[in-house]
Write a structure and sequence with these properties.
This protein is an alpha+beta fold. It has two helices and three strands. A three-stranded antiparallel beta sheet has the order 1-2-3. The longest helix has 18 residues. It binds zinc ion. The site of zinc ion has 8 residues, from loops.
């Protein structure tokens, strides 16, 4: 996280751009702990699978289901 803070210091307008990266960090950490998060409940595929953040680095990141190829929700608006 220190590295992200460095980014922010160098690039004050970058907060929205790195939101996806931060979410990716959280997801990676949970995955390392054996937790699949966030679990997709948006599509018809009943096999457990998780959402991915898209784009990882850029404005307006969204959670997407790669199986269905659909956008599920904006980052931070996941229910
Ligand atoms: Zn899905």
């Amino acid at each position: 996280m220190a590295e992200r803070q460095w980014w922010l210091d160098q690039w004050p307008d970058g907060a929205e751009h790195i939101a996806g990266l931060v979410a990716q960090d959280v997801q990676d950490r949970l995955t390392d702990s054996g937790v699949r998060w966030p679990r997709c409940t948006a599509c018809d595929d009943l096999h457990d699978h998780e959402l991915r953040i898209e784009p990882e680095l850029g404005p307006d990141p969204h959670w997407v289901c790669e199986r269905a190829g659909m956008t599920v929700s904006p980052l931070g608006d996941l229910t």
